[in-house]
Amino acid sequence: MNLIKRPRRLRTSQSLRELVKETKLSASDFVKPLFVVNGENIREEIPSMPGNYHLSLDELEKEVKSLMAVGIKAIMLFGLPKTKDAEGSSAWQEDGIVQQALHLLKEKFPDLLLITDLCLCQYTDHGHCGVLKEGKIKNDETLTNLAKIALSHAEAGADMIAPSDMMDGRIAKIRNTLDQNDFKEISIMAYSAKYQSAFYGPFRDAAHSAPGQGDRSTYQMDPANSDEALREIDLDIEEGADIIMVKPALSYLDIIQRAADNYELPLAAYNVSGEYAMVKAAAEKGWIDEKKVALEILTSIKRAGANIIITYWADQAAEWLKE
After folding, report:
1. Would residue 291 show up in a list of annotated catalytic residues for this protein?
2. For residues 174 and 148, what is the distance between their CA atoms, to the nearest angstrom?
3. Does 170 belong to an annotated binding site?
4. Bridge partner list, 43
5. Does residue 12 fall inside a structural domain?
6. Of 84, 173, 194, 280, which is the active-site residue?
7. What is the total count of domains within the chain?
8. Is residue 166 a part of any domain in this protein?
9. Cα separation of 306 and 117, whole Å?
10. Interior CA angle at 151 toward 212 and 120, to 5°?
């Protein structure tokens, strides 16, 4: 007698489905990006990223307190400076906005993991992620500036540095600089496979970092390439990265899975602004259920192999998971 195979037996109740669930999300999986600005009493919602804000230091403290209350234990800081120049020099000043935020948060929340995005795009008057001369990004000159920023972040209290610029050799330069200045314990989360993506639009509004001319295709990766991502990851690991990252996440789940299958280091994925904004916009129209779609997206990112998910839904997702 031919017996019917019945995999549905393991789907008969919510309790049973939870018991055999292969991929489980937790608030401890999430890192929340935050945008800090100069001033006081500033909490300005970013129009293209509802639920996310430009925060002055006093409001940043309140935001972090609420994040920790729902179980978020790590944040990634992005700073919007008062002034910009061709070199991006405000990025490594002792009184820079990120440096001020680090001092504050380290004192107020010693158990919070402080990750800083390391790039020049918010700080340069041309909006590129490196030193721009004669219309070209000068890779090796940029490394010097990146190292200055990394050192200033470490001195201000960062626990982890996350270089997002995609310059060749930047991980080695930053690692050497940190080690030589007795910051050997500071870890590096490398944006190893960062693609030249159209999904970054809302972030560039939030960070005021859109390039004034041209695009970033000479340093960020071509979305058509997969093997190249593994080459980039190989180099970052060789140069001293402690965590590797794929960015964006949703259209690059195949890259996340390849990275997870090929490397033993912790793997982060950045669920970027455009992925977030599309769902928000559709939910506002009543076309989709934001909670269900967001949790499905985050589950797919973890299922693909990410250990860490950087997401603008971090606090909302943490709340949803308690329900």
Report:
1. no
2. 9
3. no
4. 55
5. no
6. 194
7. 1
8. yes
9. 19
10. 5
DSSP letters of 189-206? EEEEEEB--GGGHHHHHH
Lowest-confidence range among 53-57, 79-83, 227-231? 79-83
Residue 200, annotated ligand binder? Answer: no
**Is 194 one of the annotated active-site residues of the chain?**
yes
* 121 is known to lie in a ligand binding site: yes
**15 in any annotated domain:** no
Tokens of residue 238, six digits: 């060789």
Half-sphere exposure of 46 (CA within 13 A, CB side): 26
For 260-291, write each residue's pLDDT tens digit. 999 999 999 999 999 999 999 999 999 999 99
pTM of the model: 0.94
- In this predicted structure, the answer to whether residue 210 has a pLDDT above a threshold of 70 is no
Q: From CA 277, how far away is CA 41, in angstroms rounded? A: 25
Please tell me the predicted confidence (pLDDT) of residue 10.
96
Residue 208 has pLDDT above 90, yes or no: no
The domain in which residue 306 lies consists of 24-322
- Is 238 a domain residue? yes
- CA-based radius of gyration for the chain: 20
Q: How many CB atoms lie within 10 A of CB 107?
A: 10
The CATH number that applies at residue 70 is 3.20.20.70
| Amino acid 28: pLDDT | 96
Q: Locate 198 and state its tokens.
A: 């159209």
Q: Which of 173, 247, 280, 302 is catalytic?
A: 247
Pairwise pLDDT comparison (91 vs 301), residue with the higher score: 301
